[in-house]
Amino acid sequence: MKKHIKIFDTTLRDGEQTPRVNLNTQEKLRIAKQLESLGVDVIEAGFAVASPGDFESVKLIAENIEKSTVTSLARAVKKDIEVAAEAVKNAKKPRIHTFIATSPIHREYKLKMTKEQILDRVKEMVSYAKSFIDDIEFSSEDATRTEKEFLVEVYEIAIKAGATTLNVPDTVGYRTPNEMFELITYLKNNVKGIENVDISVHCHDDLGLSVANSVAAIQAGATQIECTINGLGERAGNTSLEEIAMILKTRKDLFEEYYTNIDSKQIYPTSKLVSLLTGVSTQPNKAIVGANAFAHESGIHQHGVLANPETYEIMSPESVGRNPDSLVLGKHSGKHAFVQKLESLGFNHVGSDRVEELFAQFKKLADKKKYVLDEDIIALVAGEAAKIEGRIKLAHFEISRQEGKKPKATVTIELDGEKLIKEALGDGPVDAAYNAVNLAVSDTFVLEEYKLEAITGDTDAQAQVVVIIEKNGNRFIGRGQSTDVVEASIKAYINGINRLYSN
Ligand code: KIV
Ligand code: ZN
């Protein structure tokens, strides 16, 4: 019988810990829905106790996800467990994920706890979590730097107290594949009762080994892999979901006995959605989802691929949802074709009212752009999820420039319903427009980051602008899209200010 490797996605928890990533509740829900379409078994929706916003997001996701298990992280303390239990209680399949660090360095310097105290805490808190929910995951933080014998004691106590999944995090991304294989083998051979629970690994990428370590763990008997879309996460990030799923699928010769529930055709749309919403783009040479992952530059390669794609391609772009020849929409495409396209990209969770709005936006875009590509549709869905009903709306703008003078922006906005028109000069059209917006709202912000990317190729491509604005130590991301780069820039700036004002 084939072995099911569960995919536990922590994009919304560990991934959200990526520096500067800050998703709001609606954006998190949209990503969670997409993860469900992708076939993820467990969605770690957040760390409910961290803030009221985190609690609300976990709760909303728990209430809206049907197929995947929804979990919240919780330290091994009563309050965290109570809040996590409350947040996931309405999920169809709820789980609590509780953890405590076990390595000597964490025991001595962070927790200031003895081994005995840790064992007592694990017993008490796993039992406490079990009193709310049956499905309990227990993680030994920094497991891979913990004494093996102690780890065995910790996991045995967790199993006795009711844990149904034991997670082995390589928290600092320190181990190599051989060591990971040995550790999982050791635990399998020594932890009493381990055959009745799932063994999970959670690898970080500090040495670029997270995926390799996860694969080694599967070979040693791990049944759950914790990962994130695009490998997002703390520091160098986490195991990348798309890489794990495609390794198991592409190397059937090695991994015939394993399968995941991932629908690989949803990988690319999901990756794009996450990068548009988080504002973190993937590097061009990123495996599976990077812009160049299927591009063949050299003549020899191009010749080979034309003769037979398998000369240089071990998987097809279509198998991960990158469809260069897929149905391209244009201004004559109707709603039926549009809805079909949404579905083929995995966006069958977009509600009918949203579809109407998206279709109207699509029509506007198709008027400006000859071909509306998959990436454009994904960007529309991301833009719609990132939309925020804020105090400011952009009504109109104009840029003028006289030879030898600075550009001038005239920006009309609605602030709390009141129409305001302001003019300002700047070093460039975007600077001028931002100065005019500042005048209109009688406020100033530090623009910490400004990033402009074309969503597709060609001169009529949509631009996506991501900004980070700072005010009194608080940072907000803003995003805007348009076929006009200045408009995309102003929208991003206003989106950021609206987030700041609604906070
Ligand atoms: O990296 C880590 O150890 C974690 C745990 C909380 C699972 O994220
Ligand atoms: Zn982690």
TrEMBL record:
<dbReference type="GO" id="GO:0005737">
    <property type="term" value="C:cytoplasm"/>
</dbReference>
<keyword id="KW-0464">Manganese</keyword>
<dbReference type="GO" id="GO:0003985">
    <property type="term" value="F:acetyl-CoA C-acetyltransferase activity"/>
</dbReference>
<dbReference type="Pfam" id="PF08502">
    <property type="entry name" value="LeuA_dimer"/>
</dbReference>
<keyword id="KW-0963">Cytoplasm</keyword>
<dbReference type="InterPro" id="IPR050073">
    <property type="entry name" value="2-IPM_HCS-like"/>
</dbReference>
<dbReference type="InterPro" id="IPR000891">
    <property type="entry name" value="PYR_CT"/>
</dbReference>
<dbReference type="GO" id="GO:0030145">
    <property type="term" value="F:manganese ion binding"/>
</dbReference>
<dbReference type="InterPro" id="IPR002034">
    <property type="entry name" value="AIPM/Hcit_synth_CS"/>
</dbReference>
<feature type="binding site">
    <location>
        <position position="202"/>
    </location>
    <ligand>
        <name>Mn(2+)</name>
    </ligand>
</feature>
<dbReference type="Pfam" id="PF22617">
    <property type="entry name" value="HCS_D2"/>
</dbReference>
<keyword id="KW-0479">Metal-binding</keyword>
<feature type="region of interest" description="Regulatory domain">
    <location>
        <begin position="393"/>
        <end position="503"/>
    </location>
</feature>
<dbReference type="InterPro" id="IPR013785">
    <property type="entry name" value="Aldolase_TIM"/>
</dbReference>
<comment type="subunit">
    <text>Homodimer.</text>
</comment>
<dbReference type="Pfam" id="PF00682">
    <property type="entry name" value="HMGL-like"/>
</dbReference>
<keyword id="KW-0808">Transferase</keyword>
<feature type="binding site">
    <location>
        <position position="14"/>
    </location>
    <ligand>
        <name>Mn(2+)</name>
    </ligand>
</feature>
<keyword id="KW-0028">Amino-acid biosynthesis</keyword>
<comment type="function">
    <text>Catalyzes the condensation of the acetyl group of acetyl-CoA with 3-methyl-2-oxobutanoate (2-ketoisovalerate) to form 3-carboxy-3-hydroxy-4-methylpentanoate (2-isopropylmalate).</text>
</comment>
<keyword id="KW-0432">Leucine biosynthesis</keyword>
<dbReference type="GO" id="GO:0009098">
    <property type="term" value="P:L-leucine biosynthetic process"/>
</dbReference>
<dbReference type="InterPro" id="IPR054691">
    <property type="entry name" value="LeuA/HCS_post-cat"/>
</dbReference>
<dbReference type="InterPro" id="IPR005671">
    <property type="entry name" value="LeuA_bact_synth"/>
</dbReference>
<feature type="domain" description="Pyruvate carboxyltransferase">
    <location>
        <begin position="5"/>
        <end position="268"/>
    </location>
</feature>
<feature type="binding site">
    <location>
        <position position="204"/>
    </location>
    <ligand>
        <name>Mn(2+)</name>
    </ligand>
</feature>
<feature type="binding site">
    <location>
        <position position="238"/>
    </location>
    <ligand>
        <name>Mn(2+)</name>
    </ligand>
</feature>
<comment type="similarity">
    <text>Belongs to the alpha-IPM synthase/homocitrate synthase family. LeuA type 1 subfamily.</text>
</comment>
<dbReference type="GO" id="GO:0003852">
    <property type="term" value="F:2-isopropylmalate synthase activity"/>
</dbReference>
<comment type="pathway">
    <text>Amino-acid biosynthesis; L-leucine biosynthesis; L-leucine from 3-methyl-2-oxobutanoate: step 1/4.</text>
</comment>
<dbReference type="InterPro" id="IPR036230">
    <property type="entry name" value="LeuA_allosteric_dom_sf"/>
</dbReference>
<protein>
    <recommendedName>
        <fullName>2-isopropylmalate synthase</fullName>
        <ecNumber>2.3.3.13</ecNumber>
    </recommendedName>
</protein>
<dbReference type="InterPro" id="IPR013709">
    <property type="entry name" value="2-isopropylmalate_synth_dimer"/>
</dbReference>
<keyword id="KW-0100">Branched-chain amino acid biosynthesis</keyword>
